[in-house]
Amino acid sequence: MCAAHVECQRNHFPGRVFRCLEPSPAGPVTVCLKETCSMKRTLAASAAALTCAALVPAGTALAGPAKPNTVTLNGSGRLANSHVKMGAAATSGTVDLTLQLPLRNQALAQQMAQRGQVVSPARYAQLFAPSQAQVDRVTSWARAKGFQVTSISRSSGQVSAAAPVSKVNSAFGVKMHRATLGTTRGMAVDKAPTVPASLGLSGVAGLNSLHRMQTMNAKQTGSARSTLRPKAAKAPIRAGGLRKLASGYDGSTACADYWGDHLGAKAQKFANESNYLCGYGPGDLATMYGTSAAAKKNAPSLGLLLWGGDTTANVIKNTNQYMKDAGYPAMTKYTSTISKGNAQMADCDPLGSTGEQAIDVQSSHAISPNSPIQYVGAASCYDNDLQSALQKMVDAHKVTTISMSFGTLADTPGTNPDTSLTAADKAAWDRPMLQAHLTGISTFASSGDNGDTSGKDSKGKFLVDGKPHVGYPASSTWTTAVGGTSIGMLTTGAQPVVSGWENNYFLQSDPNKAQFTNITAKVGVGGAGGGLSESWAMPSWQKGKVNGISSTRRAVPDVAGLSDPYTGYTVHFLDHSVGSVQYETYGGTSLGSPIIAAVVALAKANNKLTLGDAAPLFYKLAGTSALIDVNSRGKAGVYFPETKLGNIVVGFDDKPQSLVTAKGWDNVTGVGTPNPKTFIAAFK
């Protein structure tokens, strides 16, 4: 035993024997680790048992035997997906890829993360980053092979590069092909790459560019308007001069500023019903989540990751016009870093992403109006660009939370996470999220807007395969997955309706008659995503909390925020589809994610809490007054009159597919949603 461990044992752990290991190419060997004495005793005490485990080199399972002095990286090869259509090689194309080295002490990193331990970025690099010599060796090899090195992250052990197809083929002994998967066009490799064993690589991400992300927002139909809220329409004159009933009926077809302000259907399908909401404002969100007091004292830095985006000047101008109109504090601490769009950006609705940017920025500001907000727009919605941008945010370590309002595009059979990403591709997401977790940055990801993804297209064919799926990055164990709620709030701030966001749609031809026809199949499913990860086992903090779905797989979501577009949030931005700056009402779990991220950031700052991934603490608070346990199937809905289909009643939490709320954890809202009266103080 080294002297440091003798001292630690004498001072802190008398009578306990330490045998601390770290990986080496030859296998586990006895090596003294220094962290036990260099950290505070609180960390050392909880890590003591962890440092005595045999740690297996990360990435070993991804590699296989090849020619002498080379290794085949099996976890980086061709997708095991029969839906990938391969075409002729395009040798002049460019491949963006990431070379991955194993993290040192990978098992220790995962164990510390499971226990919620946090270290400084410098300590993280000291414990887990590959050596500078290893990184330099990989960088030199990539350049020697004609690759353009675009970024280097020693902390994550990743070197990103771009190279012509011809040089990729030569360097890895593969053949790149044009390929398609559903509506996604890109490239795919024919087999696993082979590299010199001396490089020590565990994987190469990006050899299959057939996985891209989509924003998880949902616009309320017909909500575009030039003023903050539309003027209330006069109640129509009806035979008999019907008066407003005790139930809230007033015969008006206008949207409601707050729950129950208007109700145009005399015959109600649900006991608790209102006209659809016009769209909550920034002050409403602060009330809804009880953040006003904490926001006056704290200003944690908030990070937002997306692709593309509007200019900083336009975002500030449009946001502050909104804040002025709403009587809310101006946004004074906004910065953005937007990468130049690449060839892949054409597949990403670059103009449409400005709406998502507005949702993220303006909801974050609503929750924490004094916070610096840092927006990062990647060069495209494809994994390699977003992963690189995320890694840079984590390495920079300038924010306390990062919200990712996007998820896996699931539009055709074969596009679920397990068949659209290799092990190396998943690692390129997991590494920055694990690093964020261990260095005190909390990341959040939208769970999705298509329910359990078992929906069908207009021809009756399943969009994916008829089975529930959840996508990356939300399904990773190193981030907090955010599901969705429908919330009806009164002017007093009371919330008589807190439901899970899973909508059924009913046609009500005559608002005076209780005659309802389910037209969900025609309208399409709208609801938060949920289910089981196909990539990760159930983490320790979910065990005993997640019931009725699995005891072995990571379950999604963990928590929920406002997401239903019929009870949505108003944003103000340049809508390129109409060519002018508009007020529009949006929902989606891409609204829920930045809301929950900002609420957690305030709670961390208010309670002086050093915390990475927030999910374990949410599960610790499950069943307490800190969270509202959402369990309200089929109890409320909104009347949405005079659409193209006619008068529609939208049922909240009405189980259009397999997802529905339940007591305790459920696959729509996780363990619940923050209680505005108690959450901030309890989150510690």
TrEMBL record:
What are the required cofactors? Ca(2+)
Might you name a Gene Ontology BP term for this protein? proteolysis
Q: Which UniProt keywords apply?
A: Calcium, Hydrolase, Metal-binding, Protease, Serine protease, Zymogen
SMART domains membership: Pro-kuma_activ
Task: Give the matching SUPFAM superfamilies.
Answer: Protease propeptides/inhibitors, Subtilisin-like
Q: Which GO terms describe its molecular function?
A: metal ion binding; serine-type endopeptidase activity; tripeptidyl-peptidase activity
For the Peptidase S53 domain, which residue ranges apply?
Answer: 279-684
Q: Which PANTHER family match?
A: PROTEASE S8 TRIPEPTIDYL PEPTIDASE I CLN2, TRIPEPTIDYL-PEPTIDASE 1
Name of protein: Peptidase S53 domain-containing protein
What species was this sequence derived from?
A: Flexivirga caeni
Q: What lineage does UniProt assign to this protein's organism? A: Bacteria, Bacillati, Actinomycetota, Actinomycetes, Micrococcales
